Amino acid sequence: MNTRLAKRMTRLQASPIRDVLASASQPGMISFAGGLPASDTFPAIDIGCVEDEDLQYGPSEGEWLLRDRIAQDLRQRGFDVDASRVLVLSGSQQGIDLVAKLMIERGRQIAVESPTYLAALQVFKLFGATLVPFCIDSLEQAVGGSDNQQALSSDMLYVNPTFQNPSSRVYTASQRALLATACDSNQTMLFEDDPYRELFYQPCDRQPICSMLERAEWVYQSSFSKTLAPGLRLGYLVCSEALYPPLLKLKQAADLHSNRLSQRLVYRMLCDEPVHARLRDIQDSYRSRRDLFSEALNEHFGALASWQVPTGGLFFWLKLQGALSIDTRKLLQPAIEAGVAFMPGEPFFIDPDTAPGYIRLNFSHTRPDLYGHGLATLATLVRSATSESDEV
Amino acid sequence: MNTRLAKRMTRLQASPIRDVLASASQPGMISFAGGLPASDTFPAIDIGCVEDEDLQYGPSEGEWLLRDRIAQDLRQRGFDVDASRVLVLSGSQQGIDLVAKLMIERGRQIAVESPTYLAALQVFKLFGATLVPFCIDSLEQAVGGSDNQQALSSDMLYVNPTFQNPSSRVYTASQRALLATACDSNQTMLFEDDPYRELFYQPCDRQPICSMLERAEWVYQSSFSKTLAPGLRLGYLVCSEALYPPLLKLKQAADLHSNRLSQRLVYRMLCDEPVHARLRDIQDSYRSRRDLFSEALNEHFGALASWQVPTGGLFFWLKLQGALSIDTRKLLQPAIEAGVAFMPGEPFFIDPDTAPGYIRLNFSHTRPDLYGHGLATLATLVRSATSESDEV
Asked: Whole-prediction pTM value?
């Protein structure tokens, strides 16, 4: 090909999510791979006739009624905002794309947790970011110390503090306050990604860190993919005042506006349905799945890995014994051939090759009666990989 | 704000489309501004219950059945492709974003018609393109000559050869063949944007130029916004083999995948409905609107402007008398105050400030019985602007 692609394309790796989702949809596959919600949590939607208004072009900001409803929720989370500061997104992946366009060019330093959401890493790298690790524990241990100084003086800090993908970690109240103070005093622009917040299975602090900021610029985003339906592709962001106009222009340039029918459906579900009852049902259902998965894990992985039982979110994050010697990406193909899909841990790290030995297991998508068989199959593969590497 | 935005943000102008769409939606406004389809062309959609599958995450490429159906249409247009080469988009604006990411970085030369679609100019500039003018007439007059040599040796050529927005111009068969040959022999990557192709009101050649290429790389895109419904935000692209994998990765990074419910609805409408009869109805309806608009234009603008009656598409493109002295952007505010919205011509040019005196008028959205009043109001404003500038 004589055609010269933009140099950024050399930095674009296919996210393993894609191939994994493809394999996970094969009939008969037991998939612990994607972050797919359980289909039985989806609402029954009877639309009837679509209104003409929803078929016409609409505003780039999104529908006012939906934005107003979202702003109500945001105020309950501690944000001092109204509908005019809400931007409807075609899924929260789009928010990552827009914020990357806003903030990132070759040479910009972007701080991220490591591990963190791999599709955010993918986009930040595409736009030319130099990635800098951030760790909330070090911030806690050495306030004002040097450990996170590079992260805090970066052009942006991206965090996923509530039931993080992949680790399911949730920041404590004091960690949240500490980070807000650090961002304010360093004027660190904070990008907080919060798609899992409603999927909590026991009480914990979930206050958005962005809602606590006083001086730093910020973008906060969430999604309807985990609580209503991912196929509708709807999320939203809210941000500090100065960032709204440029983000709106970027949204317009990206896809003019989001699907109006989805906006209507989501708005209707947020208003008409007993939303809180639905959320409680989802939480109950996922809590019981989590507990069943935990039991199955204890049985099959008790001697092979360590993990924390997640307080919320959709994942168990396992550190394998003998982790240092196992590239879990190499386990994926044999696992899929054995009928089980999982997510290797490496792609969630800034430098995948230096972080072997983790795997991410989703418990929401596969039926609980298949947990045991799937985990047993996976454990056999891990055991043989571990013993092979012991032999070397 | 201490936060440093990416430098590209200094190049992002708000498209006037946005403000214009906003003003055009005020009650009582007669709008010739946006490219909004007539609501009476929208299909009646009764969805009934949404299937669970459409609520779950889906493939980044789009639904196979829809891609297969699109590929059928593409083969009828002369493309030698199957479903595997079709990428479903969240509207064709997204195609412009993806192709810009693929091809454009600071310093890249991108050739465009001038005037051309303003939201393409907006995105190309955002990504750092140096814009180079391309003109099919010069290519015709001087084959192998120097006029378009810079355009043909650019990194990409973007054209909208069938009922162009804003000019409604359509390339002849020989112009299409000539451009295909020129792209092949110069190995110019061709990006052909074809959203208006089904809106033709008299016979003319509409063969996609990309379908005639033998060596050059290419991307061809179209949309369901003009023939089904823009609010569903669905379009598609097809491209030369080497460009598909990187475009797919970019699509995934942009929004994971397009709305599945929209894909289901569009697929159903393409298969179940008598599509050709629907298209013929739309063509008949728009042809008669075009003719009524033409009559009203003759009456009110006959002495004020010149134009071609469009063969297809949604716009009349007027060159005002005394054009050199009228910045039509300055007419917009008084026009809106007088209850009429239109689209100034300047933003459609590479360098808006050097191209005064054009306006774009849409005839599909406003009711025909309002054409006369709206155009009379506009004509009065134009007349007074012309006489004012004469006085200076």
From this structure: 0.94
Pick the CATH number of A7-42+276-391 from 3.30.450.40, 3.30.2130.10, 3.40.50.1820, 3.90.1150.10: 3.90.1150.10
pLDDT tens digit sequence for A338-366: 999 999 999 999 999 888 899 999 999 99
Angle at which helix A329-337 crosses helix A16-24, to 10 degrees, equals: 10
**C-alpha pair distances (Å), B42 with each of A49, A196, B282, B313:** 12, 37, 9, 16
| Min distance B145 CA to chain A CA atoms (Å) | 23
Q: Does B310 touch chain A (CB under 8 A)?
A: no
Q: pLDDT tens, A304-339?
A: 999 999 999 999 999 998 766 788 988 988 998 899
Q: What is the CATH number of domain A54-272?
A: 3.40.640.10
Closest chain B residue to the Cα of A61, Cα to Cα: B18
Residue A86 has what DSSP assignment?
E
Does B252 sit within 8 Å of A14, measured CB to CB?
yes
Cis peptide upstream of residue A115 (ω within 30 degrees of 0): yes
Q: How far apart, in whole angstroms, are the C-alpha atoms of residue A167 and residue B6?
A: 30
Q: A231 and B259: CB-CB below 8 Å?
A: yes
Q: Smallest CA–CA separation between A127 and chain B, in Å? A: 9
- In whole angstroms, give the CA distance from residue A18 to residue B252: 8
The class that CATH gives domain B7-41+276-391 is: alpha beta
Contact criterion met (CB < 8 Å) for B6 and A101: yes
Q: Report the residue from B18, B47, B265 with minimal CB separation from A252.
A: B18
Start-end of CATH 3.90.1150.10 domains in chain A: 7-42+276-391
Locate the chain A residue with the closest alpha carbon to B104. A6
